[in-house]
Amino acid sequence: MRRAALASSFLVLTVLVGCANEPANTPTACERGPEALSRALERAPGPARLDGRIPISDCLVPDQPAGDLMDFGSTAVEVATRLGREATRPGPRGISAAIQAGYLVGAMERGARETGGIHQVLIDRVRSAATNGITAPARTHFEIGYEAGLRLG
């Protein structure tokens, strides 16, 4: 009886350890490309969700497969580059782009909190693309989006 309980406990522990070491899956909504990410960011500084339900932060997962990381990373850099360029424009369009750019960076930082640093280079690239050339007024709107992304992203 004691051996059976010990064997059962070992089996449960083995399954739990094995599951903990498996890479997490990247949600398929994260793989829909720049247009889908841009559509989600249009809701910023409110909750921006891919496919209406997946937070951007969920696109960064621990032990993320390299292909998934590259796919989402290229999408994020492309969107951040466009938003950074638009954020330099005066008026409502520039303000909106700055907020969206900040949200993207904040949401990615939120997602990377538990990933052991594997996403830091990507986040640095996205931040650089999103802030390249923006002025002080746009920076204020970027920070509003950034704080929202950290909270809601």
Structure overview:
This protein is mainly α and 153 residues long. It has one domain (24-152). Helices cover 65% and strands 3% of the residues. The protein has a two-stranded antiparallel ribbon with strand order 1-2. 37% of the residues are buried. The model is unreliable at 1-22 (pLDDT under 50).
Strands, helices and their partners?
Elements: H1 2-21, H2 34-41, E1 49-50, E2 54-55, H3 66-86, H4 92-112, H5 120-131, H6 136-152
Antiparallel strand pairs: 1-2
Key structural traits:
single chain; 153 residues; mainly alpha; two-stranded antiparallel sheet; 6 helices; globular
Q: Show unreliable segments.
A: 1-22
- How many domains? The number is 1
Instruction: Describe the sheet with the most strands.
Output: 2 strands, antiparallel
The count of β-strands is 2
Spell out the helices and strands N to C: HHEEHHHH
Judged by helices, strands and strand pairing, the structural class is mainly alpha
Kindly report the oligomeric state of this protein.
single chain
Measured between the Cα atoms of the first and last residue, the distance is 50 Å
Strand order of the largest sheet: 1-2
- What's the total helix number? 6
Average per-residue pLDDT, rounded, comes to 86
Radius of gyration, in Å, reads: 19 Å
The outline comes out as: globular
Helix residue percentage = 55-70%
Q: How much of the polypeptide forms β-strand, as a percent range?
A: under 5%
